[in-house]
Design a protein that fits this description.
Radius of gyration: 41 Å
Number of strands: 12
Strand content: 25-35%
Largest sheet: 4 strands, antiparallel
Protein name: Cyanovirin-N domain-containing protein
Structural class: alpha+beta
Distance between the termini: 135 Å
Keywords: Signal
Shape: elongated
Helix content: 25-40%
Strand order of the largest sheet: 1-2-6-5
Number of helices: 3
């Protein structure tokens, strides 16, 4: 009995060794196949990445060709000035391909207005499927008004310390609709004062007048 117990570990080692040696080819074959599958997976991933890159390049090329065909119809100025020196312009974006976000393309399309290259509109909108861009132009010559001769209307009231000055608004091209905005935003320089606009405006029918009330110790 004691002899059998002593031999048991030795027999176990031999049996394990025999099993391992017998199973060795199968294990190696499984490892070889697993390595082959992993290599094939890596090849497929590389190929898929190449296809994705080709698809992106094709889409970018198609988008570039589509964008180069875009053009603005116009632009056209609004009928009235927005304020002193400012006018809105609008234009319709033409040749927009189907199945694209027209407003997004509108926001990314440049235009030339009065010789100035403008990278993108201030905003875009969709009018029944037609895409329009809109630009606010500052320093607009046709929206530049001036104050003609300033008239001293005297003190507002005795002891008020304030004097009233009137002036007629000149070069106003659009009486209807924008006279108030043009009057209130036309700057003035007189008697050492620089003011962004008058305190009030009046349209007499014969013209638009600005009214200032300034500090004056003589009043």
């Amino acid at each position: 009995m004691f002899f059998v117990l002593l031999l048991a570990p030795v027999i176990g080692v031999h049996l394990y060794s025999d099993w391992k040696n017998a199973d060795g080819p199968a294990v190696r074959e499984r490892e070889r196949r697993r390595a082959q599958w992993d290599a094939e997976d890596r090849k497929r991933e590389i190929k898929r990445a190449q296809w994705d890159a080709e698809d992106r390049a094709r889409l970018e090329d198609e988008e570039h060709r589509n964008r180069t065909a875009l053009y603005w119809e116009g632009p056209s100025p609004d009928n009235t000035c927005l304020r002193y020196g400012a006018r809105m312009y609008s234009a319709r974006l033409m040749n927009i391909p189907v199945r694209v976000d027209g407003k997004k393309w509108c926001q990314e399309t440049e235009i030339i207005i009065h010789g100035d290259l403008i990278a993108k509109p201030d905003f875009c909108n969709d009018k029944s499927g037609e895409i329009f861009g809109h630009w606010l132009r500052l320093n607009e010559p046709t929206c530049t008004t001036i104050w003609e001769e300033f008239t001293d209307k005297g003190c507002v009231a005795p002891g008020s310390g304030k004097r009233r000055i009137d002036a007629k608004l000149g070069l106003l091209q659009y009486i209807d609709g924008s006279w108030r905005e043009m009057c209130s935003t036309t700057p003035a320089d007189f008697w050492g004062h620089h003011l962004a606009g008058p305190d009030s405006c009046v349209n007499t029918g014969a013209g638009v007048w600005g009214i200032w009330v300034v500090e004056d110790e003589e009043c």
